[in-house]
Design a protein that fits this description.
The chain is built from one helix and 33 strands. The chain is mostly beta strands. The two termini are 24 Å apart.
């Protein structure tokens, strides 16, 4: 169970040392059957690597946007023959130069054995260092990264047992330390976590939820809480409606919101107002259906072995007129469609009691042959909403994809014209035995823009004759548009003896520069509550005694 006594730096140090010693909608169609197959499973042992060849790292320029390859070797070069996807990014809120990205690392495409890869940057994403994996030859998947307001970084990682570990980094992602013995963070497949960064009693608490498909501690449990910075976790409990494939966030009053779905066309926003109370086992006091206009997709043609995208929930903590708005977004196949997918958005202005009708963020003409996938969003401190996704609208073959971006400055009522921010790539090459590019991408927003981690296949491997799955970082911002029609010019940073040829899969067209689309008359937005004065910043991880890996 959770600790009920106040947490102090000395108590947290003791706890860490102890761990070391212990080593939807009325129009909803009939529901699809609930899935029972885990999305992540151990199938194959690590492949023997005869050699690791290197080529130039990829720097892909697209108009005003530059994507930098993250999974590079010690010399900053691309590693030929590996694969990396399913990327999660976190940013130091005290210094934007410092970021970390975690991903599923496949050392060879001859095996689907994956490990916990990560990279860090100290120059705002221009160059990246990939020191290795969290634990060599240990199956790890579903990376989720986050940070608190003091800049402590955290990495939640799934084991083959479907139990998890939380890692902490005292140096902004340069090194990681496991905070408990293997698997003792509980959890399950498709887990996600968030940190309470508000000034209430739950300040610094970590909350996580996961799918029902493969829980660590028995079916029927989906939620856990840590009151000591991710070191120990309470016994898991159930969540009403069993929402899956979703994410969590906290409003300025410390209320926890969990967004997810039912593997199909039903979506939920569940609230706990007492999870912030360390003296009680959390309960859930609000459970609301959300209409997102379609069904989530698993095994779709665009990503045959995975999701077309997870369900994301984010809360506005800006202190402005949109304060405590709750936003949900999902990649869905609309009810009227039999193919393709769209990015759909809904918002609540009354604490999650009601949600707006679904709004299609993708503004191109509805076309069932097109895929808009891996949709995600984040809210900036000033209240701007950023959304990015992969998009095939410009592809003659309807599958070559580009990263697209849009934003809203009025709480999601209207959205800026969609902007292409990357070159085109094929999503069907470089598979590490399993046929997918992961299940999600991520973005972290600040007042001027957003930092994005996403997979792409810009690198061409002349040995295999295919492009490779790699992880990239790109900075997006409203000031970076409109984007002119570019000539793709991926630029290597080193000149090896044999230089791979970067082969763009399609030439993108110019991004429309139409005005913002009109939307229905908005609801009255309530006057935001004042935010409490935050307590002292949490103790940096660098001052704590952490257990050895």
């Amino acid at each position: 169970m959770s600790y009920s006594r106040p947490l102090t730096p000395s108590l947290l140090t003791a706890l860490v040392s102890l761990a070391a010693l212990a080593t939807a909608s009325a129009q909803t169609p009939p529901r699809k059957p609930r899935m029972t197959e885990p999305l992540e499973k151990y199938n194959m042992p690590p492949a023997y690597i005869y050699r690791l060849e290197a080529g130039p790292r990829m720097v892909s320029q697209f108009g005003l946007f530059t994507s930098f390859q993250v999974n590079v070797d010690a010399g900053g070069n691309n590693i030929l023959g590996d694969a990396a996807n399913e990327s999660s990014i976190t940013v130091d809120p005290t210094n934007h130069n410092r970021m970390a990205i975690g991903w599923r690392q496949f050392n060879s495409v001859q095996s689907d054995f994956r490990q916990g890869g990560w990279g860090y940057t100290t120059d705002a994403g221009t160059t990246w260092t990939f020191p290795g994996v969290l634990e060599t030859n240990v199956f790890r998947s579903d990376p989720v990264l986050g940070s608190d307001e003091a800049g402590n970084f955290f990495y939640l990682s799934l084991l083959e047992s479907f139990c998890e570990n939380m890692y902490g980094s005292p140096d902004f992602g340069q090194t990681w330390t496991r905070l408990q013995p293997d698997g003792d963070a509980g959890g399950g497949d498709k887990q996600w976590f968030t940190i309470d960064k508000t000034g209430g009693t739950g300040h610094g608490f970590q909350y996580q939820a996961w799918s029902t498909a493969a829980p660590c501690n028995g079916f029927g449990t989906q939620f856990s809480r840590s009151t000591d910075g991710g070191v120990t976790w309470m016994n898991p409990i159930a969540i009403p409606s069993q929402p899956v494939w979703g994410t969590l966030d906290v409003d300025t009053n410390g209320n926890l919101f969990i967004g997810g779905g039912d593997f199909g066309s039903s979506f939920f926003c569940v609230r706990s107002s007492n999870a912030q109370n360390p003296a009680v086992t959390p309960t859930f006091d609000q459970n609301v259906s959300v209409n997102l206009g379609g069904s989530v997709l698993f095994g779709a043609a665009i990503n045959p072995g995975g999701l077309a995208g997870q369900i994301f929930l984010a809360v506005d903590r800006s202190g402005t007129a949109t304060n405590n708005n709750i936003y949900m977004i999902a990649t869905v196949q609309q009810f009227s469609a039999s193919n393709g997918s769209d990015i759909m958005f809904s918002r609540s202005t009354d604490g999650g009691q009601t949600f707006s009708a679904p709004l299609r963020i993708t503004e191109d003409p509805v076309n069932q042959r097109k895929w808009h996938w891996f949709g995600t969003l984040a809210v900036a401190p000033n209240g701007r909403i950023d959304s990015v996704w992969l998009d095939t609208r410009n592809a003659a073959n309807n599958t070559d994809s580009q990263l697209f971006y849009s934003w809203s400055t009025d709480g999601g009522l209207t959205w800026a014209p969609n902007v292409a921010v990357s070159d085109s790539f094929t999503p069907f090459e470089g598979y590490p035995v399993q046929q997918k590019m992961g299940d999600y991408i991520t973005i972290v927003s600040d007042n001027t823009g957003g930092d994005v981690a996403y997979p792409a296949t810009f690198n061409f491997n002349p040995t295999s004759g295919q492009h490779e799955e790699d992880v990239y970082y790109v900075r997006v911002s409203p000031s970076g548009v409109p984007t002119p029609t570019p000539t793709p010019t991926p630029t290597p940073t080193v000149t090896p003896t044999s230089t791979p040829t970067t082969t763009p899969t399609a030439t993108p067209t110019a991004t429309p520069t139409s005005t913002v689309r009109p939307t229905p008359t908005p609801r009255t937005i309530p006057t935001p509550r004042g935010r409490p004065t935050p307590p002292p910043r949490p103790t940096p991880l660098s001052s704590l005694t952490l257990p050895a890996n």
